[in-house]
Amino acid sequence: VRSAPVKRNEKILGVMDSSGTLTVQRWNGSAWTNEWSVAAVPQANSVWRGFDIAYEQTSARAIVMYSRGVTVAEVGYRIWNGTAWTGEITAEMPTSGVVQWLRYEPQRGTDRALLVTLDANADIASVPWEGASGWSGVVGASTTLTLTASIATEECLDIAWEGVSVSSAPS
């Protein structure tokens, strides 16, 4: 469950069932509504968390990212602008296996975010999201970080943004 920034009394919830279907619901301030669902990951992969939800911090758009791959490292995403959802948009990650773990983290105070995936071949990819302009360059471009994990069957990755604090220093 992710809560909207201060602009709306809203929450977005994602639930993946044992068949690999991702169902997204929205709290509108008084009730939960079923928004959409998608067969996100193959059934064999439904034990992994192949989706994440984040709100852009200034626009308050909600973005649901999820694994779409059956044989490729494809992710799908949909964006909620406070009124309507976009249709599904897909992008292929710069790795070779099916995405099993996915982490999507917004940067505080901006509409930027970072997507990190772990695929079935233990490949980790990291791609920046630039808000309204979408992916930073092309997925797979020089902005992409690719590493190899020691295991692909457990969540062995996480991300966080570094914060900078400005204070007056003694002179």
The ordered string of helix (H) and strand (E) elements is EEEEEEEEEEEE
Oligomer: single chain
Question: What's the N-to-C terminus distance?
Answer: 46 Å
Q: Report the total helices.
A: 0
Compile the SSE list and pairings:
Blueprint: E1 2-3, E2 11-16, E3 21-27, E4 32-39, E5 51-55, E6 62-67, E7 74-80, E8 89-92, E9 99-106, E10 112-119, E11 123-130, E12 145-148
Antiparallel strand pairs: 1-2, 2-3, 3-4, 5-6, 6-7, 7-8, 9-10, 10-11, 11-12
What does this structure look like?
Residues 166-171 have low confidence and may be disordered. The protein has 171 residues and is mostly beta strands. The chain is built from no helices and twelve strands. It has a four-stranded antiparallel beta sheet with strand order 1-2-3-4, with no helix packed on it.
Give me a quick take on this structure:
The protein is mostly beta strands.
Summary keywords:
12 strands, 171 residues, four-stranded antiparallel beta sheet, disordered C terminus, 0% helix, mainly beta, single chain
